[in-house]
Write a structure and sequence with these properties.
Blueprint lengths: L2 H13 L3 E6 L1 E14 L6 E5 L6 E7 H8 L5 E5 L6 E8 L5 E8 L7 E3 L6 E6 L8 E3 L3 E5 L19 E7 H7 L9 H8 L8 E4 L5 E4 L4 E4 L12 H15 L9 H10 L11 H8 L4
Parallel strand pairs: 1-5, 1-9, 2-6, 8-10, 9-11, 11-12, 12-13
Antiparallel strand pairs: 2-3, 2-4, 6-7, 13-14, 14-15
Helix pairs in contact: 1-7, 2-5, 5-6
Length: 297
């Protein structure tokens, strides 16, 4: 049996009985296909034309809803605690010919979600995804859980992991830009000493996952330092790949592995798979993950 396939099967066996709770903002990702018509003659702005086909407008559930969706086929139960639909909408105008994103327009209907006291005692795994739109600001969850904060254009520099430094986390996850903001300096985290400094900088987690884009990912728990190369695949869209990685990283951190070097294999493979479709058009399943793994054997 090939090692990668064996790792996936061991992971599936370890997580299949888990009851999971995902807490965080659901983001409606809306895509409208347009045709670029050139530059306006009277102002410095591009001009686009809507296509006539109504089917060219597509809506997908992203954010916490996407994280929950990816895990549904792998665990016993997934519960989602989130905001109502259409409160947070990100509309993207994409090109009819090459799917290139031209413009993104954000809509936030409600910013004060109030206090959230959540009882998660019945769940084996609790995953919190703070996308910085206010839903998690009043969150109160007992016990330890897996945590991610996301930096985007709406909250750049304000939605850092240190907001949650008083909460003890089973694992934390961030990308390179979020890590740089956390330690107040731009860095590529190519050295173990740098990831060690980040791990001790108001993270307050038992383990830290750091995604590095094309350079793969890093895991550190204060003792074990693991690097994982990216699984290269034909890329359609990278939006949502980080959320996919996070979803499976939480499960990997929860159940552990026979070999610590394998802790990021399934998360990285799942993230690679999610790059083969537009944003959150599909979810990761056991069948798709195994099919994708066979490309690398």
């Amino acid at each position: 049996m090939k090692p990668l396939i064996k790792t996936i099967q061991s992971f599936e066996e370890a997580v299949r009985s888990l009851k999971v709770c995902v807490i965080g903002e659901t983001i409606v990702d809306e895509f409208i296909t347009v045709k670029y018509e050139g530059q306006s003659m009277k102002s410095f702005c591009p001009v686009f034309r809507y296509t006539d086909d109504e089917a060219q407008k597509e809506q997908q559930l992203g954010g916490a809803a996407a994280i929950a969706g990816h895990l549904t086929d792998f665990v016993s139960e997934v519960s989602l605690i989130t905001n109502r639909e259409n409160e947070i909408v990100k509309t993207r105008l994409i090109d009819k010919d090459d799917q290139k994103k031209h413009v993104e327009i954000n809509k936030f209907d409600q910013r004060n979600f109030g206090k959230l006291d959540i009882d998660v005692s019945e769940f084996d795994v609790v995953i919190v995804a703070d996308f910085g739109h206010g839903f998690c600001n009043g969150l109160n969850v007992e016990g330890k859980y897996h945590f991610m904060t996301q930096t985007n254009s709406n909250n750049f520099g304000y939605n850092r992991m240190s907001k949650w430094k008083e909460f003890r986390k089973k694992s934390a996850c961030m990308d390179l830009r979020e890590a740089s903001l956390q330690v107040n300096k731009k860095t590529n985290f190519s050295e173990r000493a740098l990831i060690d400094s980040l791990f001790n900088y108001e993270i307050n987690a038992e383990g830290l996952f750091l995604t590095l884009g094309k350079k793969g990912a890093v895991y550190y728990d204060g003792h074990n330092y693991v690097r994982q190369d990216v699984f290269k695949s034909p890329i359609v869209d990278t939006i949502g790949a980080g959320d996919t990685f996070y979803a499976f990283a939480c499960l990997s951190a929860e159940v552990g592995t026979d070999n610590i070097e394998d802790i990021m294999l399934v998360p990285s493979l799942a993230a690679s798979l999610s790059c083969t479709w537009l944003c959150n058009r599909e979810v990761v399943t056991k069948e798709k993950l195994l099919e994708h793994a066979n490309r690398f054997i």
